[in-house]
Amino acid sequence: MSIQCIGRTLPMTLLITVLLPGCATAPDGTVDDRQQTIAEGAIAGAVLGGLLGAAVSRNKASGALIGAAAGGLIGAGIGSTIADRKAQYASEEDFLVAEIRRNQDFIQEADAQNRQLYREIAQLDRESRRLTREYRAGQVSRDALSQQKAGLEKQLAKAKQIQSLTEKQLTDAQQVYQESQQKRGTQDQYTQQLETNVVELKETQKQSSQNVASLQRVYDNMAI
């Protein structure tokens, strides 16, 4: 990734870095450990998202910014437990509304990242096959093939990160849904919305897994 691309990623990452610590500071100036953990997760997510966006987008600038924004919100789920989130709300209804919104935001952004990566996988496959053929024919150096494989390895790691975050989000959503179902019943509006979240998150997880599997095949086919 070029220095120029990294520079374009930094403004959004820095914006999130500046804003989130404020959420982790209590009125007396002390730092809330739980909020700090969430903030750090969001910053890490922003970096991951920015790098992923720049890596898989033909438009490097816009790709990095979109990735940083999405990664920041997706990453905010890291380190935040259901009990932590529930403790922030005075009523169960407020908590459920927040969880439903949290799921919806995650689905929207994870799906956007998955779609972007899915569109690029075919191009990556074609480029990798071409380089492999040219290497075997003695038309390109081993270094060119090694660089392509190293790039694929990085993208595969990022795809696995998205898959892991999706699995965590799905696990949380299923737990909240089951608790709501038991306490409020299947006909409750919040229970039904949570059920919809779970169904959609399963689809998001499926696409994440497919992207990981596809990238793994492309990577494995590049024998050096």
Notes on the structure:
The protein contains seven helices and no strands. With 224 residues, it is mainly α. The model is unreliable at 1-27 and 55-66 (pLDDT under 50).
Radius of gyration: 20 Å
User: Which regions are unreliable across 5 or more consecutive residues at pLDDT < 50?
Assistant: 1-27, 55-66
> Shape from CA axes?
elongated
Task: Specify the oligomeric state.
Answer: single chain
- Roughly how many Å apart are the termini? 22 Å
Class from helix and strand fractions: mainly alpha
Secondary structure: number of strands: 0
The count of domains is 2
Give the % helix: over 70%
Order of helices and strands: HHHHHHH
Mean of the pLDDT scores? 76
What is the strand content?
under 5%
Number of helices: 7
Largest sheet composition: none
Name its key features:
disordered N terminus; 224 residues; 2 domains; single chain; mainly alpha; 83% helix
Break the fold down into its secondary structure elements and pairings:
Layout: H1 3-23, H2 33-56, H3 60-75, H4 82-86, H5 92-136, H6 142-184, H7 189-221
A few lines on this structure:
It is built from seven helices and no strands.
